[in-house]
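User: My collaborator sent over this chain with a note saying "see what the structure looks like." That's all I know about it. Can you take a look?
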Amino acid sequence: MALTTTTSAFFPTASRASSSTTPASASGCALLTLRPTHRRSRTWLCRRRALALERRRFFVLQWALAPTDRRRRGATQRVAVAIAMATPSAMGPPFLALFKDNLRRDPYSAYITLATVEHHRGAVVPRARTVVFEGFVNTDDGDVGIAIKCSSESNKCKSRASDQVEIVHWFERTRTQFRFRGALTFDVDETSATRLKIWRELSMGDRAQFYYPSDTLATSTRDEAFERQGVAFEASQGGMATNFCVGLLTPTEVDVLDLNTCERTLWSRESLDDTWTEVRGFAPPVVSIDAIHRA
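Assistant: Without extra context I'll predict from the sequence alone. Here is the result:
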């Protein structure tokens, strides 16, 4: 009786299939009843397939369904790793130390606004979108650039009317705004160490979005397009997507506004080969410091 009680506790189907008075000597028969019949096997396989499909959909849509603390912490970790690579030297950018200080005080500020100028229906129009700040990257010529991830099929890449862009990074906790202006270049080199490094630091959900068919707008997240995305991503076995590229902005102008004190700082240079000039002062945010500097 003790063996029968243990079996039914862990396997409820056994207790229903066998008699409650099964003797201990017949425990082998009681265990045999746990083997699923042909009908149960089909049901079990269907449930496993449905569960696998749901897990795939959830895995693919992590980047859209979980923009919460876990995703923010992941972005902050990537920022910490990338910004550690860009160590300011005596000839490095003067704004980097101030930026790193604000990032330490507000580590969850991993989202920035990218403003571009693009071709649209025969006209040139401004565009702005929120992107993830992937950190600072040391360039080959010893400079420092701001890195973002993007797809080569996106409008910011193939429809741009100018390489000149502006990035706004707002730190909520420190009430400090950084504006970076300069040329945005796109790294699509298959052998690029920067491209490979940023790809490896992405979460699986971030990687999976690059395998979504760029010419399809799904009617829901259960659409066939998302299933094709999941299949393509699994088939890649973690390999880098061909449309994945890294946007790199090497700034020629940095405008910093501290709303706590109305302190304004402007660093600028005419080209990447020139040295930085610095202008400091105090003015309300409605005043354009670059206009005063150029007057």
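A starting point for your reply to your collaborator: The chain has twelve helices and nine strands.
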